[in-house]
Each structure stands twice: as C-alpha cells, then as structure tokens.
Specification:
Strand content: 5-15%
Distance between the termini: 34 Å
Structural class: alpha+beta
Transmembrane segments: 28-51
Region (Disordered): 206-236
Coiled coil: 152-193
Radius of gyration: 33 Å
Order of helices and strands: HHHHEEHEEHHEEEHE
Domain ARB-07466-like C-terminal: 237-344
Protein name: ARB-07466-like C-terminal domain-containing protein
C-alpha cells in the first residue's frame, strides 16, 4: 500500500477537496487534513511518513548544510581568485612587453640627454644662422621633447603596472591557499557528520549521457543569491525558492516527470524552507517499498543528473538508495535505519543551496 505523504502534499489536499493556495494554510485546513490522515491510518494500519521522514538528525542536516555552503563559498572565491590571477598575468605580460619595446627608445633618450645636456641645447639654438632656422630648431626640439617625455612616461607606467601586478599576484596566491584550507576543513566537517550514518566511500550514481541543465542565475561574483520561500510550489500547496523551482523545472524538461513533492511541513530540514524536493522513483506515487527494475533505473539516472548539474542548479546534496552526494565529499554511504523513505530507496531527495 502506498505511504501517505506528509501534510501539504498535493495528493492530500486534492483528495480532500480543498482549494490550493500558494502558502500552507493554518487553522481549519490543518485540522481537516490531519483528520483525513488519521482516519486513513486508522483504517489501513500502515505507518505514515513521520514528521521528518528523511532519516538522520537535525544535527546531521545542520552540519551538512554548513559544510556544503561553506565549501561552495570557498570554491566560488577560489574560482574568482584564479580568474583575477589570470587577468593579472595578462596585464603584467602586456606591461612587460611594452616596457621591453620601449627600452631602446628610453636608452636613446638617456644617451642624448647625457651627450647634449641643457647647455648644448641652448648653444644649438644660438648657433642658428637666421630667425627661420632658429624657429625650426625650437619646433624640432619641442617635438623631440614631447616624444621623449611620452616615451619615458609610458615606460615608467608600464614598470609600475608590472610591480603592482606582481604584488597583487602574491596576494591572490595567499587567498587561494586560504580557500583551499577552508574547502578541506568543510570536507572533513561533512565526512565527520556523515560518519554517524555510515558515511564511508560509495560507488555513487554516474551517467555520462545526462543532459546539461540551464544554469540558475548567480551573482556577478559567481556566488549564489540568497533566496527564501517566495514562489508557488507547482508540486504542493506550499512555496519554494526560485532556485529550487528552477531545478524542478529543469528536471522535468529533461524527462524526469515522475511524481514529485517539494514543500512539505516538517520539524526541520529544507522541505519547509522550500529548498528541497522528493522525486519518487514511481511514476504516480510514493511506494512503501524499495524501487526495483525501471523505477530503480529512473532513480539512478535522476541522481546522476542532479550531480552532473550541481554547479548549474546550486545543489547542496542529493540522497538516493542509501547513498548521499555533497559537493565536498562526492558519493558516500548513507545507511540510516528505517523504511524506504528513510533510507531513500523509493525517492531521490534533492536539497538546494
């Protein structure tokens, strides 16, 4: 028998005949839905999804969130630093090339100044045979001085640019070393948190043929914008973040159209924040049994799809078939104890940054 979804799922509100809203209703709505669930459970005797059926603990989820967000932020800063390093190298190389080309002209200016000096220049003008010759020499010297001045100014500018670029490059190298240490620390944090649910190495789910999703919007510096539960969830009566909605829509556009629920009322986790979706392996419902055959293959492909598109969609972690993927650890074992919903053998769980 199918497991009853958590409160707020489309199936509960639709079957009960309640109008759909863009936010979870309180009061009478909650009482009536709870009553429906109670009656169904009393008749069937089947265990319902718990208030938080995802397994693990609040502490585990908090640590995974902190580790994943911290890792992603450090990764973004590292990428920005490497981008700045590349730009600085280009700037420094161009300045060095210009300075090298100007070296011959600068040397000629220095030699001429040494040979002629200020007195020699005055004597050159006084030795003019007539007024016209004098004017011509003045104009010639003025033009020569302008050329020399421009050459020397450009040379000094390029040398200064090179020095500044070299100093900035040293700072970027230190910044990159700092971010690599942060990433390593966040990786250890995630591994420690997962150890309580058997988080050893795992084979994971990979599909080289996974489609490439359209990227979700990022800030100009490459970071993810902060989002809250502000848009209607098409899979329930609740709300989701714009980034979660984008991931949901991209998955469906790429053929993953089995039964899915994102927002739901829980005691903790990302679902009540609109930052998570549960994608059933079954086409029409959540089954209280581990997926097999084509359903299992569907879940494998979907989990691989989210991992491949993690950078495009802002994935915090993916859980499927007793395994969990995070940006810092890759696929690890997730051996929580419980039924199919807890060990995630009947649905793929997606949490968004």
């Amino acid at each position: 028998m199918a497991v009853i979804p958590p409160l707020g799922f489309r199936t509960v509100s639709a079957r009960a005949g309640f109008p759909r809203t863009s936010r979870p209703r309180a009061g009478l709505f909650s009482v009536l839905v709870a009553a429906v669930v109670t009656v169904v459970l009393g008749v069937s005797g089947t265990a319902a999804w718990a208030a938080d059926p995802e397994g693990g603990s609040k502490k585990l989820r908090a640590n995974l969130e902190a580790a994943s967000k911290g890792y992603e932020q450090a990764k973004t800063r590292l990428a920005s630093s490497k981008k700045r390093e590349t730009q600085l190298n280009v700037t420094m190389k161009a300045a060095q090339d210009r300075a090298s080309r100007l070296t011959t002209r600068v040397t000629a200016v220095a030699n001429r100044s040494y040979q002629m000096g200020r007195v020699s220049t005055v004597m050159l003008l006084l030795n003019s045979s007539n007024p016209d010759s004098f004017i011509e020499r003045v104009q010639g010297l003025d033009m020569l001085a302008q050329v020399d001045g421009s050459t020397l100014a450009s040379y000094r500018e390029d040398i200064e640019t090179t020095k500044k670029a070299q100093t900035a490059l040293k700072a970027e190298i230190l910044e990159q070393q700092r971010q690599l240490k942060v990433m390593e620390g966040k990786k250890k944090q995630a591994e420690t948190a997962l150890a309580e649910v058997g988080g050893g190495s795992a084979g994971g789910f990979v599909d080289a043929s996974s489609a490439a999703a359209e990227p979700a919007p990022r800030n100009s510096d490459g970071s993810w914008p902060k989002e809250s539960c502000t848009v209607d969830d098409p899979s329930s009566t609740g709300c989701v973040t714009p980034r979660t909605l984008h991931a949901y829509q991209q998955a469906r556009a790429d053929g993953f159209t089995h039964y899915t629920v994102c927002w739901s009322q829980r005691d903790s986790g990302e679902h009540p924040k609109g930052r998570a979706c549960d994608f059933s392996a079954n086409a029409s419902t959540f089954k209280d049994a581990a997926a097999t055959g084509s359903d299992k293959a569907y879940g494998d492909r979907l989990a691989a799809y989210f991992v491949k598109n993690a950078d495009r969609l802002g994935v915090m972690y993916v859980i499927w078939y007793r395994q969990i993927w995070t940006p810092s650890t890759g696929w690890r074992a997730y051996s929580a104890s419980g039924g199919p919903s807890v060990v995630h053998t009947n649905h793929v769980h997606l949490s968004e940054l």
